[in-house]
Request: fold
Amino acid sequence: MAKQRTYRHEYKFLIDERDRADLFYRIRNLIPLDPHVGENGKYWIRSVYFDDWRDSCYLENEDGVNERAKYRIRIYNASDERITLERKSKKNGMTCKEAAGLTREECDLFLRGTPIPMNDARWEEAPEVLKQFNILILSRGFRAKTIVEYERTPFIYDMGNVRITFDENISSSMDVRHFFERDAMRYPVLQKGQLLLEVKYDEYLPTFIRDNLDTGKLRQISFSKYYLGRKYTVPCVGGRLQ
Reply:
């Protein structure tokens, strides 16, 4: 029996450096940092996003399709020690993330547009998201399209599975061949001084966190790092990729 997907709330806000200073001061005194951060309290996230030959994921995002999904491979701090294939689904304004670990060899195959051989002994026990992505490589020509990278400061709170993150220096690159290169060429997605605040939780957001996020200035926005990463690195007319 297939595992039922669990969707959660996810809200995004575009803020400036003054907002960040205010909110960071409030949040750091309420909930702890993610223990996986480095000494500076941050880590670098780099993701390579995949799409089919029609750019369906890109266009569904642009059109605001209610139920959609996108696939990415993610690494941290430009290292291949931890490589994760992720499918992020959206439905009725809520999101669900499913993940599967990859080896460097498997990741390299996907970056070349090559599926994993399905006669591999471990294939029967492979996570469903990995099996489905492998099929998409074969059936719909899914290929690596763009790299998105940013610096993240994450706070977590177990009650409600709350995650509050500040994403800075968001940039993108079309040169997917250099996914593992630390100093790969990339281009900024946001204007200087702009950051992205994300608030994620399961069924509820504790009142004491909600109250401290309520500065009277935050305005929820629709924000897709993949969509904007491609929009600002690929020529397009009327928002449509050419």
About this structure: The longest strand covers residues 143-157.
